[in-house]
Amino acid sequence: MSDEGYCTAAGVSEPPGTDGPPFAECVLCREPTEYPESYRGITMCPRCEWQEAQRSACSG
Ligand SMILES: [Zn+2]
C-alpha cells in the first residue's frame, strides 16, 4: 500500500482568512454591501437600501 496514489491539490492554495469575494462598498456609508465588487451600478448596503426605499416611499 502506498499513499502516493492519492491526488493531492497541488495547485493554488488560497490563504486563510479570506471571507469570500470582495464586496463593493456602499455608495452612501462605504459599508460593505452584499454586491460583488464587479457589480455595475449603485451598490448600497441593506440599511441604506431600506432608508432609500423609505425616503422614496414617503416623498410627496
Ligand atoms: Zn450604506
Describe the structure.
- The chain has 60 residues and is an alpha+beta fold.
- The protein has a domain at 21-60.
- It is 22% helix and 13% strand.
- It contains one helix and two strands, in the order E-E-H.
- It has one helix at 46-58, and strands spanning 23-25, 32-36.
- It is rod-shaped and about 80 Å long.
- The model has no long low-confidence stretch (mean pLDDT 81).
- Zinc ion binds at residues 26, 28-29, 31, 44-45, 47-48.
Low-confidence stretches: none
Radius of gyration: 21 Å
Order of helices and strands: EEH
Bound molecules: zinc ion
Quick summary of this structure?
With 60 residues, the protein is an alpha+beta fold.
Main traits of this protein?
60 residues, two-stranded antiparallel sheet, alpha+beta, binds zinc ion
